[in-house]
Amino acid sequence: MHTFFSVANYNMKAYIEPMKSLLITLSLCFLATAPSHAQLPSTNGTVTIIPIKGMIEPALLYVVRRGYDDAVRNNADAIIFHMNTPGGAVNAAGEIISLIGKNDIPTYTYVDNGAYSAGAFIALAAGDIYMAPGSVIGAATPMMMSPMGGAQEMPEEVQEKMTSAVSAMVRAAAEQGGHDPQLGEAMVRADIEYKVGKKVISEAGRLLTLTNTEAEQLVGRPKRSLLSSGTVKNLDELLVTIGLPNAEQRVIEVTGAETIARSIAKIAPILMIIGMGGLWLEFKTPGFGVFGLLGGTCLLLFFFGHHIAGLSGMEDVLFFLLGVLLIGIEIFVTPGFGVIGLGGLLIMLASLVNAMSERLPGSWRPISFEPETFTGPLTNVGIAFAGSLLLTLFAGKFLPKTRAFASLTLHETIESTPDQSDWLGREGSTLCELRPSGTALFDGEKRDVITQGEPIPVGTPVRVIAIRGIAFVVESL
C-alpha cells in the first residue's frame, strides 16, 4: 500500500510540475504582451479650443458663446483662444470679455502670429498668455472706421473721449486676467511712458507693442514675466506646458450656417426696419400682399440668424407671430387701437429684444433683468422702430402717387379705362366697413373704394378725393 501511494505521489508530481511551469510561462507571456498603463491610449481631461481669427466683429461673440457652451457641456478642464487677429470692434471685444468673466473655466490665449487692438483686450482678460515664435501683441489705440472700411479722422475731443473709455476698459480687462493694468493702458495711449521699476518698457510717444520674446522677459522684484507665460511652437506644446498633454482637443469650427448668421447680424437693424415697416404697410393697404411678404421675409431672416447664432429660440418667433396675430385682430376685427393691439405690439417688441439679449452657455438659466442685459437690444429695437415709422410715413406720402404702388395693391387697370375724373368730389355712403378698402354706393352705383389708411364704419357718408386705378380714394364727411 505504501509503495502504491509513493508511486502515485511520484506520478502526480510528474504531472503537476510541468503544469506549473506552463502556467507561469503563459502568465509571463500575457504580461509581456499586455500594454502597460503608460502605453494605453488615454485622454487626460478635455480642452475646448475657440478660434479668434480675422476681424473681431459682434457676430464673433456667437462663436465664442458656442465654444463656452461646448466647454460647459463637456466639463472642459480649460479653454484656449487660438488667436490671430488684426483687431476689430471694441464693443464686440467687450462682450467677449464679459463672457469670459462670467465663467469659471480656466482660459488661456495662444497668440499665433498677432493679437492687435481688440484681440489684445481679449487676451489680457483671458488669463495666461502664450505666444508662438515671432508673434506680436499690442497696438490697441481706438480708431473710428468709415462706412467704406478705412480709418476715419475724429475731432480731438472725440478722440480723447473714446481713448479714455477704451483705456478704462483695457485696464479692467488686464485686472480680470491678472495682468498689469498700466501695461494694458500703454497699448492704448501713446502719450504715457510704461516702466516696471526703473526699467523703461515703452517710451512716451509710441504705443506698446511686444514681440513674444519681449513679452516673456522677466521684470520687477520678485521677478515675473512681463506679459507672456512662455513661447510655444504649437497647441500640442501648449497643452504639455499647462499640464494637459493627453487632453481631448475639441476645436470649435465656424459652420456655414454660422457664417450666414454672422452676415445677417450685420444688417439686423435694417431687417427690423423693413420688417416692421412692411407689416404695417400690409395692414394699411389692400391687394396682393407684397409689403407683408417683404416684411415677413426680413423678420424671418432676422430670427433665423439669431437662432443659428444661439441668441434666440423658437419661442421668440412664436411670440412675435402671436403679437402679429393680436395686431391683426385689432385692425380687422375690433377697429381702433385698444388693449389687444397694444398687447400685440408689446409682445412683438419683447420678442425682438429677447432675441438679441445675451444668453450665457449651459442649460436653462433664468432671464436676467439687469439693465446692461437689455440696454443694447432696447436701443436697437428703438432705432428700428423709429426707422420703420419714418419708412411708413414716407411710403404713405409718396407711394400712393406711383404707378408701381397701384399695380401692387389693386387690380391691374386696362388700357381702355375711360376717363373717370368726373367722379372726383362725388358723395356717397359706405356699404361695408372700410379697413381700409371696401365698397361704397354713389347714386345707386357700387364702386370699389379705399381710404387713406383710417377705418371708416359702414353707412358713413364719404367723398371721392382721388382715383387710383379702378378704385376711388375716399374720405369721410
Q: Could you characterize the architecture of this molecule?
A:
This protein is α/β, with parallel strands linked by helices and 477 residues long. The chain folds into three domains: 197 residues, 2-enoyl-CoA Hydratase, Chain A, domain 1 (Alpha-Beta Complex), CATH 3.90.226.10; 149 residues, no CATH class; 65 residues, OB fold (Dihydrolipoamide Acetyltransferase, E2P) (Beta Barrel), CATH 2.40.50. 48% of the residues lie in helices and 19% in strands. It has 15 helices and 19 strands. The strands form five sheets. Strands 1, 2, 3, 4, 5, 10, 13 and 14 form an eight-stranded mixed sheet that branches. It starts with a helix and ends with a strand. The N terminus is likely disordered.
Observed structural traits:
single chain, 477 residues, alpha/beta, 2-enoyl-CoA Hydratase, Chain A, domain 1, OB fold (Dihydrolipoamide Acetyltransferase, E2P), 3 domains, eight-stranded mixed β-sheet, elongated, disordered N terminus
